[in-house]
4'-phosphopantetheinyl transferase superfamily protein
Amino acid sequence: MIDPGPLPAATAIGVDVVDCRDPRVLRGLPKDRTVERVLSASEAARLAASGDPVRDFWLHWGAKEAAFKAVTLLRGAPPVFAHAAFEVDLDTERVRYGEIELALTVHATAERLVVVARSAEAAEHPTWAAGTVEALHRGVGGLDVDRLREGSFSAEERDAVRGLPSALVRLAVRSEAAHCLGVEERRLQVVCPPGPTGRRPPYLHLDGAPSTDIGISISHDGDWLAWAVSVSGSAGGS
């Protein structure tokens, strides 16, 4: 894979989805040691005063996960992921990591939480969407994951496809990116660099080369999938 390096700030984006029907969410707040690992002292103080601490804990979790993905694109490589190092303020919809500040967009329903993190230079209203595994699976004709992997992905894409949700969310973000760029989807690939699980951010390739005009991010949890796209003003089909 060609190393795309850091992406322009206008294309730095991250998304995370939490399935509110997952048993880990339905059980309530995690154990104290988990809360202490994930939250900073100021975040924990605000959580203690929250009217809905379970929802707010998972929103913090999603914001930190989304921010990690955006920072990875900004830096060109994943940083050390210590959750508490990402300082979230849900009131101002901001998250700070060192010298980097990102804006948050939060979409919460009874069934799922979606958080999008973006740089200040990115679009004020980033393109994002969410869907269920079942709904997207129906949309591709009910193929099993092996047939889906072989029939819908290039050789460069396949090694990052780890299961049905992984496959479906990649198809979704690729389709979204094609629409945003105004190009045929067959010209696009969603490619991950080599590395351990969780440290292989997806990059969009156009005509076989990484595109610096667009940043993409994907997430799946339980039955929910989410994807986001951030396009620079200079992007467009050719």
Remarks:
- The chain has a mean pLDDT of 92.
- The chain is about 35% helix and 25% strand.
- The longest helix spans residues 53-75.
